[in-house]
Amino acid sequence: MKARACVLTIAGSDSGGGAGIQADARTITALGGHALTVITAVTAQDTRGISAWSPVAPGLVRAQLASALGGFPVAAAKTGLLPGAGAIRCVASELARHPSIPLVVDPVIGSTSGTRFLSAVGLRALREELMPRATVTTPNWPEAAALTGLSVGSDAQAERAALLLALGCGRPVLVKGGHGRGRRLRDCLAFPDGEVVWFASRRIATRNTHGTGCVLSAGIAAWLARGAGLEAAVGRAHAFLRRSLAAGRGRDWGPGHGPAFAGR
After folding, report:
1. Which one of 29, 105, 118, 213 has the fewest beta carbons within 10 angstroms of its own beta carbon?
2. Do 58 and 86 meet the contact criterion of CB atoms below 8 Å apart?
């Protein structure tokens, strides 16, 4: 397994440090990689949610991408918050020049506190221009519902949505089960040929869950960069997220949801 591989994260900045670029970089570093960053948006947020945000101009996003992809041996990449169709097309066009780089697409459509980042036009660009390039796309239940138009409120519905998305983009899709209830958490990895693989674990009781999607997707990218296959990368990233959630229990950084990855 390769270590110290360069992993590129293309995402928004979280002033609270719990999600986005900050969570991605911590995760990549913890898993032995070197984090390269392209900032797509700047947010003002704390444990209660986002109070303000602003997108980075597509031209500056493109310049950051060109510097990272042209100046470093990027072994894998991941995307997070992409603020609109323009940013998505910019990222897709730049990554198209590097088809051998594994790509994890975490489709950040909106925040848990209610801030919306992508319109219907942005969602269409995501489905049509970026997901078909991805090694895997990692929506949660609400994101899978937004991308498919289906109701997603159970494991069975998550599997249906995952299969529909995988068939539509021709690439694997991992629908995360963190929004489910009960003691067991189940993530559904679907392939375009109809194969389904489940990753199940006991739910960790904690309110410090901010940035879980970022940690998982960055973890998958980090393991892909180290040479792991997709299923192995998902399984190892899943285990790393569990350790991160366990480490964050009882560390209350504020009145809301603290970071999923509290460090050691």
Report:
1. 29
2. yes
Whether residue 60 lies inside any domain: the answer is yes
Q: At what angle do helices 230-248 and 212-225 cross, to 10 degrees?
A: 140
CATH number for 125? 3.40.1190.20
Nearest by Cα to 5 from 37, 27, 31? 31
What is the SS3 assignment for 41?
Answer: strand
Task: Indicate the pTM of the whole model.
Answer: 0.94
Instruction: Residue 133: give the domain boundaries.
Output: 6-248
Phi and psi at 206, nearest 5°, equal -160, 150
The residues carrying an active-site annotation are: 176, 209, 211-214
Residue 253 lies in a domain: no
- The reply to whether 155 falls in a domain is yes
| CB-CB contact of 209 with 260 (8 Å) | yes
Residues sharing a CB contact under 8 Å with residue 174, sequence separation 6 or more, in sequence order: 136, 137, 138, 139, 162, 187, 188, 189, 190, 220, 234
Average pLDDT over residues 138-151: 96
Angle in degrees, CA 166, 88, 56, rounded to 5 = 145
In 3D, which of 111, 104, 109 has the Cα closest to residue 124?
109
The total of structural domains in the chain comes to 1
